[in-house]
Request: fold
Amino acid sequence: MSAVAPTPIALTIAGSDSGGGAGIQADLKTFSALGVFGTSVITAVTAQNTMGVRAVEDISPAMIAAQIDAIFDDIAVGATKIGMVSRVETIAVIAERLRYHGVRPVLDPVMVATSGDRLLQSDAIDALRTQLLPLAALVTPNLHEAALLTRTPIAGDEAAMAAQAEAIVKAGAQAVLVKGGHGDGSHSTDILFDGHAFTRFSKPRIQTRNTHGTGCTLAAAIAAGLARGLDLSEAIGQAKDYLQNALEAASTLSIGKGSGPVHHFHRWWSS
Reply:
């Protein structure tokens, strides 16, 4: 009998989005679309749709710890992605259990939803900065999040983005991808700093209202690439390609009255 090849596996630690466009739901869709088996740890349950977030209920730290341990005690996870962690207690237990299991995650510092609703409590920003950021193999902040993490103004050009990336690595992260999706211009440019060199990723900016879950999707796609054995730069490049295609196909979806989701399964669904 021939041996079964190892299955690429990724873990998402994030909140649940009842609207299905972001959070745990977006991450698991992304993993599946990219040929990776997805596992999950739910940190919070949100009541939300394409119009906004109506309510958030946090999962207890003990239950979060139990979920993490259940995964790592049994399943060979190749990459871990962290999304919504809304309070200090959640951040503390995740950091403690990931240190115990020797895990360096992809950290998407989710602070504000696409709708503008705040998802991270103010006192949790410092906890994320001091406890999770130093554990991260990669941090993926957008322009607003990078400014909050570095306590500097929102970057207005690539030089400022690069300076913020350096500051985040200096704070302990192994690498950082500062995302330019919320900027201006005909192209959306992200800046990667791995502690040694900068790499620039640029794509034409797509005009669509269906942008819900873009940050979750990109970070999950990067984690999927890492789980499949790609190096960091290659994983980011392939993730950018996947998200670009998902954004381009988003207009074929008609979901909700507000900011709809990207099209995670654009390769399989007909328009």
